[in-house]
Write a structure and sequence with these properties.
Distance between the termini: 84 Å
Radius of gyration: 28 Å
Number of helices: 12
Order of helices and strands: HEEEEHEEEHHEHEHEEHEHHHEEHH
Strand content: 15-25%
Number of strands: 14
CATH superfamily of the largest domain: Vaccinia Virus protein VP39
Shape: globular
């Protein structure tokens, strides 16, 4: 072994530690060469479908990338990286720290220190704790998500993940805002009720809250289905109404939800929540036609927005950005983030508004944005400030 170069010795020690299950982590640092944007590479041992590999995180200046390698693949890559991309490579095993260091002339030296290092978990796909469980949930079976034994069907996997992500978000909101006694929750555009039933289940059975939920849906066949399912599940404080959200009236809305309400239906829902002084307003907007049709940009952005796809994306950003500012103008603290992965739906933005302080500059900021992009009007703004000129919301 003494006849081998420091680099060859290092690679041999890496191979031995990995096969002996003593490998803890690998770090490549002190970058050189043309790719100065790559700061370091961090590797750890993982298991994927019964195979043990090394997961390498490439840390760039503005992003991270992860690639998984078999040991043999990584050894070949290290032969290329050492001296060409990195001057330092550190290996931690359960018993040692092994450092390979190269100077500017690429002369290498190997340093070995005895030290105890605890190996992190090698599980790649961690078992996620679910707030909604598949077992013994009759509504999940009725909605086609689980089979007779309570196992999630392959066709129901995405919907089940979406449900749990939704409940995670609700759980987080409840830590930010307090609900009154016996809160009234309204779900505008409840559809087939996937998320509405899960919300009732979580709040009523897990948090033990005395809640009442009303789902509003235009399609009578879905309303009949959901009401029958609520009755079968003995969800006594869950009801569904066949009604247009425009005509829905309620003196008390503590929690307003509108997921994937199309175009101005999202604005109508937000306006109703603001008017009812709801503690929280949660919307996941769908299409954004209204602002796009209203836009007449005459600034330098015009050369970019002449492309239809870019105009559409800009309209989506402006529509939801102005919605958030209008909520802030009316005393809400807002968050805008990705609801679920784009593999499930391309319309995946969620806006959460909880009671806070009014933003005094919000309306001036909206006016400046409208002027910049030639937006004649935003429907939510008209509903809030010129309701007599807009569709009635009371």
């Amino acid at each position: 072994m003494n006849n081998n170069s420091p680099t060859e010795q290092f690679l041999q020690l890496l191979q031995t530690s990995f096969k002996a299950k003593q490998f803890v982590k690998l770090t490549c640092s002190k970058p050189v060469g043309s790719n100065k944007d790559l700061k370091n590479i961090y590797g750890r041992r993982i298991e994927i479908k019964g195979q043990t590999k090394i997961s390498c995180t490439y840390r760039f200046t503005t992003k991270d990338e992860v690639k998984n390698y078999a040991l043999e693949e990584l050894l070949l890559l290290l032969q290329e990286w050492i001296g060409n991309s990195f001057l330092n490579v550190d290996l931690l095993t359960s018993e040692q720290k092994i450092s390979l260091q190269l100077n500017k002339k690429r002369k290498a030296r190997l340093l070995i220190q005895n030290q105890k290092n605890e190996a992190p978990s090698i599980t790649h796909d961690k078992q996620k704790k679910r707030l909604i469980l598949a077992e013994n949930n009759p509504y999940l079976k009725a909605l086609g998500i689980t089979n007779q034994t309570g196992k999630v069907l392959q066709s129901g996997q995405k919907k089940f993940r979406q449900i749990n992500k939704y409940i995670e978000i609700i759980s987080s909101i409840l830590q930010q805002t307090k609900l009154p006694t016996s809160p009234q929750i309204v779900d505008m555009g409840s559809g087939k009720g996937y998320l509405t039933f899960a919300l009732y289940d979580y709040l009523k059975h897990q948090l033990k809250l005395d809640i009442s939920i009303t789902g509003i849906e235009l399609r009578e066949n879905l309303v009949d289905f959901c009401n029958q399912l609520a009755q079968d599940c003995k969800y006594e404080q869950l009801q569904f109404l066949a009604q247009d959200i425009t005509t829905y009236q309620s003196d008390k809305i503590d929690f307003l939800i509108a997921l994937h309400a199309c175009d101005i239906a999202t604005d109508i829902a937000i306006a109703k929540g603001i008017k009812a002084d709801a503690n929280a307003i949660i919307v996941a907007p769908c299409c954004h036609k209204q602002v796009r049709k209203s836009m007449q940009c005459t600034t330098e952005m015009q050369s970019i927005l002449r492309h239809g796809i870019l105009l559409e994306r800009q309209a989506e950003l402006l529509t939801d950005g102005i919605r958030a500012l209008l909520l802030e103008a009316h005393g809400y603290k807002t968050q805008v983030f990705e609801f679920i992965s784009t593999e499930h739906t391309p319309k995946n933005v969620m806006i959460i508004a909880t009671k806070g302080k009014k933003k005094s500059t919000a309306l001036a900021e909206i006016a400046a944005i409208k002027k910049e992009f030639g937006i004649k009007e935003h429907y939510l703004e008209k509903l809030l400030f010129e309701p007599q000129k807009a569709q009635k919301i009371t």
